Amino acid sequence: MRFFQRKSKCPTCNSELIDKQTRKQKCPHCGNEILVRSGKLLTEDEALTLDWLVRLEGFGVTRYTFVQSRDRLTDKFGKRASINDTIWGILNQLVGKYGADNSALEQIYRNMSSLVASEGKDPTPYLAEAEKARQRQIQETQSISTSLEEFSSEIDRILYSMVTKQVKKGIQPILRPTRRNQKQIRLITY
Ligand SMILES: [Zn+2]
After folding, report:
1. CA 89 – ligand 1 centroid, Å
2. Ligand 1 centroid, distance to 50 Cα (angstroms)
3. Which of 16, 20, 23, 35 is the most buried (most CB within 10 A)?
């Protein structure tokens, strides 16, 4: 069964590796980092790209989006754009794209803060933006429940008018009194 004994190879220099790689380490031949993702050996660049693609998958960011953005930045900079610069550009575009969705915005700003922190810069401004988006979500939830209350009092009015019509026609109301519209139903029975 030669297939199962196949030696792993360095993703950078393609040299055969003696030991089975299960965690991050340097290639003894070329000295580049070898990272392991789902049992596969990847270069540091490829592994970091994959990590970001997994994190941003929910925002519709694909490998194609990533490659396009990286190529565009590479042209602009005149040298190969880093993963972080590429992801930073994508995150900024997402802020514009999801501007009205505070739940998405919170996640985008959290990703921005972790990217900034990974470069040893101050993540506080982005954490503050994430917190603002979270506060807006709370406000939205509150206003949704307020409008639900208005909605259900509108239903009460509709039920009231339906029941009134039935009573006028001599029909026994089919609605059972609930705690919510008990008062109105009782009004009808007088
Ligand atoms: Zn190597």
Report:
1. 30
2. 20
3. 35
